[in-house]
Sequence to fold (450 residues):
Amino acid sequence: MKPAPFSYCRPGSLTDAVAALADDPDAKVLAGGQSLVPLLSMRLAAPSMLVDINGVPDLDHVRVDDSGVRVGALARHADVLASPDVRRTQPLVSLALSHVAHATIRNRGTTVGSIVHADAAAEMPMVLTLLDGSVTVASAGGTRTIPASGLYAGPLESTLHHDEIALEAFFPALAPGEGVAFAEIARRHGDYALVGVGGVVRIEGDQVLSARAGYLSVCDVPTAVDVTQAWGDDEAVVELALSRLDPADDIHATAAYRAQLVRVLTRRVLRAAYDDARHRAEGAA
Amino acid sequence: MIEELFDVRLTVNGVTHALRVPARRLLSDALRHDLGLTGTHVGCEHGVCGACTVLVDGRPMRSCLLLAVSAVDAEITTVEGLTEQDGTSEGRLGPVQQAFAECHGLQCGFCTPGFLTTITAGLRDNPAPSEDEARDMIAGNLCRCTGYANIVKSVLRAAQIAGER
Fold:
């Protein structure tokens, strides 16, 4: 298994990188390459040119402020996962990252790359969707910010234009009263999940103000469902979630089994997110 | 059509090599075919098996998921680089290698280079792992012979040896 021939450049600036990408309609961006290189080797992708952005300065930041977490295009999953600031500011990012492949893959793969690779079976596109985050992209014409709700067009298809490079992902901070949880079921540790669920629950005192669940590996695109109106009735929560989802058969699981995992994990994760919110509220009080 | 070649300088086990390779040359193939460092083994070639794991600036990475042209500016350590200098011409086995020998941590040996590099880095981050942590450390590497029991023992023994040295 060897990639088909392609040309290659390693620009030293973002200006040169977006220019190289604009020059060749069949060019692809290489960051960590942990999804792209297997696709090349299996010849599922055969770009004419790779624009390697690993030589572009100032793209490997992991920055945190009160509003949230900003992850640069060259920040490796491992760097984001290792950051105590990230864990404190938006713990769902850290919880989900620990499920991304294996440590060895996380050492090279980038969080932003995973997000724009748009694999509905991947953790971080779902986390960005559930948290209503965004991605900032650059082209020769300037930069724009795409909200997560407008980022995914279909399986492995983002709404980035061909000549755009993703620069940064933004994950909003955990708000006061919120708690989060994440769980997934995979056949093998580190393998793609059959179903993964993230939860964000916001409380005030004993009252649940909002409850949202995000799903990976269930639909063609990462999907978040607001289940606030059904809160308090587990059965209704699960049915509401399933009414917005479209679990499909594939070689890994049947649609019925996926739906069952949705039922089990939705309850489990939302309960854990609620407990997390209570725990944090008690800690803050 | 003659394929375009790129000049690449790779630093492997402390030695810098100049080579001319096509952009599609995987780092695993550059190590094995261009540099003759056949200690790095190639199993699945799509990042699943872990046999080709090398250290890039000390961090374990799949060499089959890196392009040689993109691995410049990094210090690469292969299994050949895990031997320690002790004044003799061969050097002596590193702690992880020694532990594998003592604990029967390999049978056919195909997966072993990936385990040795992964565990070397893992023990640097966690010098005294529990058994669970040892299992987690090697979760990304496949072995079809041992059933892993002796590899887990080897991780724990390697931690002891490293502590004694």
Q: What stands out?
A: The mean pLDDT of chain B is 96. Residues 95-164 of chain B form a domain with the DNA polymerase; domain 1 fold (CATH 1.10.150.120). Chain B is about 35% helix and 15% strand. The interface with chain A takes residues 3-4, 6, 22-24, 26, 29, 45-47, 50, 53, 56, 59-62, 64-67, 69-70, 72-73, 118, 137, 139-140 of chain B (CB under 8 Å).
